[in-house]
Each structure stands twice: as structure tokens, then as C-alpha cells.
Amino acid sequence: MSKQQTLIAHLKSQLGDKLANHYVSFGELTLEVNPGHIEAVLKFLRDDSDCAFTQLIDLCGADYPERPLRFDVVYHLLSMTQNQRVRVKLQAGEQTQVPSATGLFDVADWFEREAFDMYGILFAGHPDLRRLLTDYGFEGHPLRKDFPLSGHVEVRFDDDAKKVIQEPVSLVQEFRDFDFESPWEGARAANLIPEGVLPGDEKASTEGQEG
Q1: Rounded distance between C-alpha atoms, residue 35 and residue 15, angstroms
Q2: Angle at 49 between CA 45 and CA 55, to 5 degrees
Q3: CATH code for the domain in which residue 77 is found
Q4: C-alpha to C-alpha distance for 87 and 99, rounded to whole angstroms
Q5: Which of 55, 71, 110, 192 could form a disulfide with 78 if both were Cys (CB 3.0 to 4.6 A apart)?
Q6: Could you tell me the pTM of the whole model?
Q7: 10 Å Cβ neighbour count for 126?
Q8: Residue 69: domain span
Q9: Cβ neighbours of 113 (radius 10 Å)
Q10: Is the separation of the CB atoms in 100 and 126 below 8 Å?
Q11: Is the pLDDT of residue 68 over 70?
């Protein structure tokens, strides 16, 4: 039995119904956690000597708006002593209060603030849950799949008011369709030049005849 298989058997025996599912993808183990158990699972993964996942490498969100619980909250953990990684996933809705992991991992502070800012995921018990990457007064959450590509407002400096102001987005030109073909391919498609002849080639034949 491989080291990873031994870990899976250990987790299944110790965590039981706290896990909704588990699978291995691209050589890494993913654990899907049932609602209400994320704190217990993370604490076990950190403190159990056979796990020792003492480092929270990343915490992020993923948006699946077609689902009733549209968000995945994803934790990436590393065990330096066991030389293993594990991914932990929890599904959450727009109003779900996900327990903050800041009591277990200090680094979760800014990770959770970023997930709140970008997705609107709520973390109960976070000491300072406010936006991290967007500006004061920003509307919406940019990494949600239903967020408009142009955004809701644009920020500019107003010379008359002598301050930064926010205005509804206005597009100064129409979106353009770009033709990624080279000029020669486009010219051939329009039958402007013969096949196999590039503009300028005719000069070579005429120049060779001169003199």
C-alpha cells in the first residue's frame, strides 16, 4: 500500500461521515467535507501526527452559479514532515457562514478576505472581514461568473472637482471584431492577389529584365 493509500485509509477511519467524498486527481488527494465539519476536519489534518498538515498554502474560492450552493471554498494544505499535500473542499451558498480558519492558521486572514472580496463568501468569526483587493465603495464581486466584464463603475480623477470620482461605466468606442489573419492571407481570400504571389514579387521579375 502506497503512502497516499495509507493516508486515505487513515482519514476514512478517523473522519467518517465528516467527509462527503474523496478522490485522487493528478496525483493529489482531494477531500470533500460535509457542511458543519470544516473546522473539525482542518484541525484533525493539522494536529494528527500521521497527517501533520501544518501549513495552509492557499485558500480560495470557485464559482458554479448553476448549483444551489454556488461556491467551493478550497483549502490547500502541506505536510513538510510527511511530504504530502491535500486539497479540502467545502460547498457554500451566498448566505452560508463558513467558519473562519484564522483560529487554526494565521495565514488564513488575508486568504479569507480575498475570497470575500472576489466572491462574496462569508467567513463567520473572521476578525476583520473587509475587502482586500478592490477599492472602497466597490460594487459586486469580480470573480463571480455573473459579474459584468466591464464592471459596474469606472474610477477617474475629476479636474473640476479635484478628486477621484466613480461613474457608471461608459464605453467610448464599440467593441471591435479583430481579424487575426495576416494581411497576405486576407488579400488572397479577397482574390486581390494570385495564389502563391506576395505583393512586391512582381518587382523581382521586372527588375531582372531591366538593363
Answers
A1: 13
A2: 45
A3: 3.30.460.80
A4: 17
A5: 55
A6: 0.75
A7: 19
A8: 3-137
A9: 19
A10: yes
A11: yes
Residue with C-alpha cell 478576505? 113
Grid coordinates representing 196 are 502563391
C-alpha 69/C-alpha 67 separation (Å) is 5
Q: How far, CA to CA in Å, does 187 sit from each of 160, 168, 176, 196?
A: 49, 41, 20, 12
CB 22 within 8 A of CB 39: no
Contact between 14 and 44 (Cβ < 8 Å): yes
The verdict on residue 130 lying in a domain is yes
What are the pLDDT digits (tens) for 114-150?
999 999 999 999 999 999 998 877 889 999 998 887 7
With respect to residue 66, please indicate whether it lies within any of the assigned structural domains.
yes
Contact 83, 90 (CB under 8 A): no
What number of other Cβ atoms are within 10 A of residue 78's Cβ? 16
CA distance 161 to 140: 26
Helix, strand, or coil (residue 13): helix
In a domain, 155, yes or no: no
98 inside domain: yes
Concatenated DSSP letters for 123-143?
Answer: EET-TT---SSSPTT--S-TT
Q: Structural domain tally of the chain?
A: 1
Grid coordinates representing 50?
500521521
Beta bridge partners, 90, equal 73
Cβ proximity of 101 and 45 under 8 Å: no
Question: Mind listing the pLDDT tens digit for each residue in 50-62?
Answer: 999 999 999 999 9
